[in-house]
Specification:
Helix content: 25-40%
Strand order of the largest sheet: 6-5-2-7-8-9
Low-confidence stretches: 1-7
Distance between the termini: 17 Å
Structural class: alpha/beta
Radius of gyration: 17 Å
Largest sheet: 6 strands, parallel
Strand content: 15-25%
């Protein structure tokens, strides 16, 4: 896995930017691992396999995949959700995320997360990040990532075509969702896996800058430099 060299720069121009939450804006790794380790230990499951495949995916889908036959999927998912809501220690923003968000027009930003709205509010607050007015959580979609529904819905909320947006994601499922939505996608951090062709990879936002432009016909664009 390699990150772009600081000796060269890449620029993407868009009208809107769509962010995943966990691992992309918020580092909640310790809590996520703690909750899934509890789940795995209860049923004698392979925690490594769960962590490898659960990142960026709705908890319900992971429980459904790994829970033993006959388990109450709804009850298990609800229990795990309560565990996640109760713990905020160690949650921080991804380096550079606060600065990047502060430089963006609020009405050009959306959050697209596999978490519930309650959990998104708790984790974003713990990291000191406000939830964008345009946000898509697990309750807002019928199909979670890697399905593109969430990102398509967010682009529509911001009034832009998929081709006019850019997605920031950290997990294979979310990266696949962004690409399937027809949105240029930037991978963030160490958990992105093997990247499809054309996907830029950055360690965090420390070296990312954005400039806002207004075209002669009044159209606002955002130029991201990496």
């Amino acid at each position: 896995m390699s990150f772009p060299s600081h000796a060269s720069t890449t620029t993407l121009t868009a009208r809107a930017v769509l962010f995943d939450m966990d691992g992309t804006l918020v580092d909640s790794t310790s809590i996520v691992e703690q909750v899934w380790t509890t789940f795995a230990g209860r049923y004698g499951l392979d925690i490594g396999e769960i962590l490898r495949t659960s990142h960026g995916v709705q908890a319900m889908d992971t429980v459904r995949r790994f829970a033993p036959a006959g388990a109450d999927i709804q009850a298990l998912a609800a229990e795990l959700g309560r565990m996640e809501l109760a713990e905020t220690r160690g949650i921080v923003s991804v380096p550079g995320a606060l600065e990047l968000l502060a430089s963006l027009p609020p009405d050009a930003v959306a959050l697209v997360t596999s978490a519930s709205r309650d959990l998104a509010e708790v984790r974003m607050a713990a990291a000191g990040i406000g939830i964008p007015a345009a946000s898509v959580t697990s309750e807002d979609v019928s199909q979670g990532k890697p399905h593109p529904e969430g990102y398509l819905r967010a682009a529509a909320l911001l009034g832009v075509a998929p081709a006019d947006a850019v997605v920031f994601e950290d997990a294979p499922a979310g990266i696949a969702a962004g690409i399937a939505a027809g949105i240029r996608t930037v991978a963030v951090g160490p958990n992105a896996g093997e990247l499809p062709d054309g996907v830029l990879h950055i360690p965090d936002y420390s070296e990312v800058s954005v400039t806002t432009h207004i075209t002669p016909d009044g159209l606002r664009t955002l130029s991201f430099t990496f």
